[in-house]
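Tokens for chain A. Residues wanted.
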């Protein structure tokens, strides 16, 4: 299911409560505490999405299976909402960049290339291939690789002796360039813009994935700490008065 579909508010509170085996008043309590964020219809009726249902099931797992109290659940869900927001931003940005890439390919627009955002360290970025091996891997002449570097289509690393060293990502980029030029007939100016956007795309993905990973690790570490706390003297009831 797509992210947009998971966020679409569709269930009234009675249906949502039935889906997660909770009392509707419990859902209202969780909303007041900021654990879930249901939408509203034009008539102000609460409407719950698939993501809300997932969150409610996670809250039940935390409280019933892991014994986490509501204060702990509040923090977990705050982090989960932050994670959701980052994932939404991530997917929206990736979609925007991919749309722009497709547009450049179709229109062969020729704006000047700009600086791309840097990517976080990744094994695929490790420079390992000398130019002769890289050229052989992509079936190009070494001079072509030098031309592409001058046009900033690829960015090989350098050894301590200043020898060009190409990474797996560089090899992927070179194969993509060949596809654009030979299969799609895009000129080099168009490829320059496409590759600029690819670098931006990869930088955005790396940055946001790193942020998501950090939040996931934070959630996991907090959950580990909470499981080690002594059980509360009394748990809050699942349902209240209407």
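Reply:
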């Amino acid at each position: 299911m797509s992210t947009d579909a998971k966020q679409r508010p569709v269930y009234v509170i009675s249906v949502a409560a039935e889906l997660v085996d909770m009392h509707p008043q419990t859902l209202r309590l969780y909303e007041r505490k900021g654990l879930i964020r249901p939408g509203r219809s034009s008539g102000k009726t609460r409407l719950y999405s698939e993501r809300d249902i997932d969150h409610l099931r996670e809250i039940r797992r935390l409280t019933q299976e892991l014994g986490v109290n509501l204060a702990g659940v509040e923090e977990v869900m705050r982090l989960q909402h932050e994670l959701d927001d980052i994932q939404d931003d991530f997917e929206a940005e990736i979609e925007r960049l991919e749309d722009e890439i497709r547009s450049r390919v179709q229109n062969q627009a020729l704006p000047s290339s700009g600086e791309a955002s840097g990517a976080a360290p990744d094994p695929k970025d490790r420079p390992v291939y000398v130019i002769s091996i890289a050229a052989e891997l992509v079936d190009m002449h070494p001079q072509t690789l030098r031309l592409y570097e001058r046009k900033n289509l690829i960015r090989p690393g350098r050894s301590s002796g200043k020898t060009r060293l190409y990474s797996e990502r560089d090899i992927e980029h070179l194969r993509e360039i060949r596809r654009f030029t030979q299969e799609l007939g895009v000129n080099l100016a168009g490829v320059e813009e496409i590759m600029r956007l690819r670098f931006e795309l990869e930088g955005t993905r790396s940055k946001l994935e790193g942020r998501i990973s950090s939040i996931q690790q934070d959630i996991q570490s907090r959950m580990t700490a909470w499981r080690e706390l002594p059980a509360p003297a009394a748990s809050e009831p699942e349902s209240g008065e209407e």
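DSSP finds nine helices and four strands in the chain. The chain has two domains: 1-65, 91-206.
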